[in-house]
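User: I'm writing a tutorial on reading structure tokens. Could you give me a worked example: one chain, its sequence, then its tokens, then a sentence or two explaining what the tokens reveal?
Assistant: Sure. Here is the example chain.
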Amino acid sequence: MRKQIKSIWIMMALILLIVLSACGQSATTNSTTGDSTNAAAETETKTDSDSASSSADKVATAEEELVTYQSDAGEVQVPKNPKRIIDLTSFSTGYFVALDAPVVGALSGAMNNKYIKDQLAAAGTSDLGEEPTPEKLISLKPDLFIVYTGTEGIDKLEQIAPVVQIAYGKRNFKDLMLEMGKLTNREDAAKAWNAKWEAKINELKPKVQEAVGDRTVSILNPYAKGLFVFGHNYGRGGEIIYGEFGLKAPAKAQAEAIDSGTGWASISMELLPEYAGDIIFTSPWSGDKTDPKIVYDNTLWKNLPAVKANHVFQLDPTSDSYNDPLTLEGQLQFISDSLLSAN
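And here are its predicted structure tokens:
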């Protein structure tokens, strides 16, 4: 399973039609003539209008100062202080929430993430669904789009606002936090969050390592064809379990889902005992509607040492797949409490 990059499949030509229509209406006003008195008055009014317009343009330019940002697809001119961000990645939305950066639109996945949904609702963020329409994007008047590299329709989005492309999984969450801080002119806030996080980990890590000892830990998601085994960089607590706490995965899971760099592996039910750790974090995979009892009621699952010892902990399939800062804060409490209880 590869992380599917969200495609903006919509026919963005509608955007151009709407924009061109608005421009056309503006350009065709005041085209007829009147008597000499009216013409003189119109000239005077136009002079005043041009002066006011020029002044307004200067204010707008000052308010919308642009800076160069190095995205994962090259340099792009972005607002120095973006005020109306639309995130079309879902997985980055929590970074902006943590930085108190204004998100005016986000996909349904992010809007339903229990760790950030209240903050998004309070900020009035619009739920774009999973297939946002051109009309909705335009109506929100964004000054910045966030998308994954390779997203379709970027050239059309650029007709509305600057587009920053980021590569999923290129950076760990702390490095990405610093990048998002740089992008939104909130570098100090990003550094402060990282420092606070490190302090929490430094407090919990020795306690967790002592409680777990040499035991192995697995992250397993049942799905239609077997199970996904997750590693250190695909959410579901992997960043904390393997990255921050430095706990061990079973040898095969370590090789295929972590050392390989992919972050995951797919296995058949028959191979489960080789990938199951002494402690298991699990949830149904959110990518299909298969009844997880196909796995959980299977004899192989029921006979696992972790299951018999009651060392299996249920993750939230709708929210724990995320790995943004606020989601990780929520996961940290649950994961550390679970590991400390697995005596």
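What the tokens reveal: The CA atoms of residues 279 and 311 lie 5 Å apart. The longest helix spans residues 36-63.
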